[in-house]
Structure formats: C-alpha cells, structure tokens
Amino acid sequence: MVDEDRRSPAAAVFDALGGEYEKAFAGSAAHRASLKWLLERLGPGSRVLDVGSGTGRPTAAALAGAGHRVLGVDVSPVMVEIASRQVPEGEFRCADIRRMPLEDGAFDAVCVYFALLQMSRAEQSGLVRRLVRALRPGGLLVLATVPLDVEDFDGVFMGQAVRVTSFAARDVSALARGAGLTVLREESVMFTPTHPDARPEPQLFLHCRRDGTEPAG
For residue 29, what are the contacts with CB-CB under 8 A and spacing of at least 6? Predict the structure, then answer.
C-alpha cells in the first residue's frame, strides 16, 4: 500500500472515480489504435510496464490477452483492486511510480496513458527519463497526454477537483526526444469522455523507440 503521508493527490481522485473512468474512456478509438500499434511490434511474451494502469482496461487487458507479461502500477488502491479482478493474468502494484525502484533495461515496452498530468513538469521530465532507462535498447514507449501549456491549473475532471500540469504538444515531443527516444508516430485527436461532467479535450499519442545510446539525465 501507499504511505498515506506521501500519497499522491491523484490517488484520491481515481479512488473516487473507480470504474466510472473506464466507462468514460471506453469509446477512445485513438487509445485502441495506439495499443494495436504496440501489439503489432512486440515479440512473444514481452515484459511491459503499464504506468497509471487504472482499471486494467483497455491497456493491461489487451497486452495480457496477447500473452505478454504485464506489470501495472497505480497510486489508487481502488483502481489496483479493480484491475487485479478484471485482469487476473496481469500483476498490479499500488505504488507511486515516481518513487518505485525500476531496474535498467527490465522492460520491452512501457505504456504511459494519461498518467503524468498531476505531476509537476520537473517530475514528468524526470520520470520519462527513468522510464526510458527501464527499457531495453530498442524497446518501445507509448505516451499519451493532454497537450496543454498549463502549470498548476485548478480544474474539474469528471466532477473531481484536480490540479493539472502539462506541456504544449511540441514540448511533449521534445521531452521524449531529450530523454533518448525516437518518436516514430504522433497522433493528435479531440476526445469527449462519456460522462455528464466531461468536456472535449485534446489528446496526443506518441509512439517511440528507445535509442541505442544511453538516455540523458
């Protein structure tokens, strides 16, 4: 379990949302296309880290269903419980990825679907570099975010108060390249979650490969 004194504000938000988050984003064609891109490029039995694994659907479920070894990490105990029940063939851990030890070169792929938005810019940049180091050379990283040039913005997400920090799209791409990734594909879409309190939001999907060189930082 996560130490309550060091618990991320994101945990409270996603504990409250629970399965409603999955329902709201189930219609995302861009997310499904992103997973298809990744699945087409993974070798059999690949080891994949799913950062901000949520309810386990669709990401961990798709990966585990294809025979890959999935480790999902989420700060929300409620989300981890749901994911463990919905995707029993995956492994799920309740932890703050910013503090969780990661072995260099341990994973064939890393997924980061909308898991950075409640971190500071410095934390986002540092985490992406750590995740790149956790990839084997040539490994794949998929990153999705809401590409807005905002810092410590107080907003409401599906009825929950949130404080959001992000980068403009060009800066997200620059962050990935600076961390030692080659961006193979970018997709920008507008998506409206299926929830009465949701609003249309821009989404950016980056599909990347770790360079053979050592990541910076």
Answer: none
| Per-residue pLDDT at 214 | 54
Residue 8 tokens, joined: 């991320």
- What per-residue string of b and e applies to 109-128 under the rule 16 or more CB within 10 Å gives b? bbbbbbbbbbbeeeebbebb
The whole-number pLDDT of residue 31 equals 98
Angle at 100 between CA 124 and CA 78, to 5 degrees: 90
Structure tokens at 124: 């986002």
Q: Which residues of the chain have pLDDT under 50?
A: 1-6, 215-217
Q: Are 60 and 80 in contact (CB under 8 A)?
A: no
- 119/99 Cα distance (integer angstroms): 13
pLDDT (0 to 100) of residue 198:
81
Global pTM? 0.92
**Residues 4-210, CATH architecture:** 3-Layer(aba) Sandwich (3.40)
Q: How far, in Å, are 4, 91, 136, 206 from residue 98 at the CA level?
A: 15, 19, 19, 21
Secondary structure in 3-state letters for 53-108: CCCCCCHHHHHHHCCCEEEEEECCHHHHHHHHHHCCCCEEEECCCCCCCCCCCCEE
CB 38 within 8 Å of CB 142: yes
pLDDT for 19: 86
The residue extents of the domains of the chain are: 4-210
Give the residue from 58, 8, 54 showing the smallest Cα distance to 30. 58
Distance (Å, whole) CA 153 – CA 76: 21
